């Protein structure tokens, strides 16, 4: 049976260690304001993008060069009716050597078709994994959204 969770994978020429380091450099590939530890077991960090998206993640698995798992402790998605839709979901990154290359498999466990956030969130994850994270791994620079400059009115 096919998984109902959103999954994306990328394949790169870099080593598992390089891919793993890039994954845990969350600020290098995911847009928004990120506060806290993103690179150690039991680390907690918050993600905030304007007043549109807030989430708090806890790193519940951290196996160097192989796997990292974030548990969503709290969230507020202001573009869907159920603003806490992500609560209790898990985001996993699995890294493995396959045929001389490194494969990164991303799964958002609990982001399933039929839920209100699925279309918007799966499109966003697709961009961040297939473009931004992949560029961070392969070129050393990700492609998160540009930071917005504050104006004199802000």
Description:
- Helix content is 20%, strand content 40%.
- It has 154 residues and is an alpha+beta fold.
- Strands 1-7-6-5-4-3-2 form a 7-stranded antiparallel sheet.
- A hairpin with a 3-residue loop joins strand 4 and strand 5.
- The protein has a single domain, classed as START domain (Alpha-D-Glucose-1,6-Bisphosphate, Chain A, domain 4).
Topology readout:
Elements: E1 5-12, H1 16-24, E2 33-36, E3 44-49, E4 53-63, E5 67-77, E6 90-98, E7 101-112, H2 118-139
Strand content: 35-45%
Low-confidence stretches: 148-154
Distance between the termini: 51 Å
Bulk shape: globular
Neighbour order of strands in the largest sheet? 1-7-6-5-4-3-2
Give the oligomeric state of the chains in this entry, treating copies of one chain as homo and distinct chains as hetero: single chain
CATH class: Alpha Beta
Number of domains: 1
Q: Number of DSSP strands?
A: 7
Largest sheet: 7 strands, antiparallel
Q: Say which CATH homologous superfamily is assigned.
A: START domain
Structural class determined from secondary elements: alpha+beta
Average pLDDT level: 91
- Report the helical percentage: 10-25%
User: Topology as H/E string?
Assistant: EHEEEEEEH
CATH architect. name: 2-Layer Sandwich
CATH topology (fold) name: Alpha-D-Glucose-1,6-Bisphosphate, Chain A, domain 4
Q: Which radius of gyration do the C-alpha atoms yield?
A: 15 Å
How many H/I helical runs?
A: 2
């Amino acid at each position: 049976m096919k998984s109902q969770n959103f999954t994306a994978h990328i394949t790169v020429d870099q080593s598992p260690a390089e891919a793993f380091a890039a994954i845990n450099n969350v600020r290098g590939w995911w847009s928004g304001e990120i506060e806290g530890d993103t690179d150690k077991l039991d680390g907690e960090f918050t993600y905030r993008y304007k007043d549109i998206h807030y989430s708090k993640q806890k790193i519940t698995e951290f196996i160097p060069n192989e796997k990292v798992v974030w548990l969503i402790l709290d969230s507020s998605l202001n573009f869907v009716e159920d603003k806490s839709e992500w609560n209790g979901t898990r985001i996993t990154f699995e890294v493995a050597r396959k045929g001389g290359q490194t494969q990164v498999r991303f799964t958002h466990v609990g982001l399933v078709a039929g839920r209100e956030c699925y279309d918007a969130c799966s499109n966003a994850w697709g961009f961040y994994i297939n473009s931004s994270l992949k560029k961070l791994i392969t070129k050393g620079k990700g492609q998160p959204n540009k930071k917005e400059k504050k104006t004199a009115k802000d």
